[in-house]
Amino acid sequence: MVRPKKHLGQHFLTDPNIAKRITDSLSPEGSNNIIEVGPGKGVLTGFLLERENIKLIPVEIDRESVEYLIQQFPGIDSMLLEADFLRLDLNSLFGEEEKFRIIGNFPYNISSQIFFKVLDHTEQVTEVVCMIQKEVAERIASPPGNKTYGILSVLLQTWYNIEYLFTVNAGSFFPRPEVQSAVIRLTRNERTALGVDAKKFKTVVKTAFNQRRKMLRNSVKGLLNEDVMENPLFQRRPEQLSVEEFIELTRFIAASHTAEGNP
To answer: How far is Cα of residue 162 from the mean position of the Cα atoms in its chain?
Structure first.
């Protein structure tokens, strides 16, 4: 028996129809290398194992779940990793040049951290299909101009096309969560480079949204001098800027540093 553990954010999906919809949301074409994050009691794993010609690596941190999966799915121990996904060296699983996809019912309490890990591997992660808290899903999929548009929206939409697929009610889980869930799909877009320093870009995005109610001329003023704020982007709030405009803003800030002789 696997007991759901609050500190791991475990809410086990109990509806097999929802599980099949999630696994069917993986694109029919794509890398055969698939990581399942937090398989738990294997509600997705069973459907994934029915697929031909895939290399599945389920990653589970919970010892009870690991023992249950080994009993439930004979032969899975050869592919199952008992590990913390957030600490895992993903390059060691398939090689630094190999593409792979990620699927899972992400624990609510670490879903954002999982996405930041994905952002560290955008050249390899070609697709992510996951169930997360509905509020977080809406935020990630939100377009500019929406109140929920934020840091993760910009950073993920820089590299991925985001699709909000469907909502999952709390009654489909045990224990029943206090919030609704949603399934989204991230598909790698055609962007190969930012054209600006990636670290500087992240800094600009995070700095802007850390004071999201302020105009950019106030929220990012610590990144450059007041006398170079003639760019009209500074007269707007961060949630009003598209990915391309954040790239433009980063380029402008970097250019101002160069003009002043700063790094």
So the answer is: 10
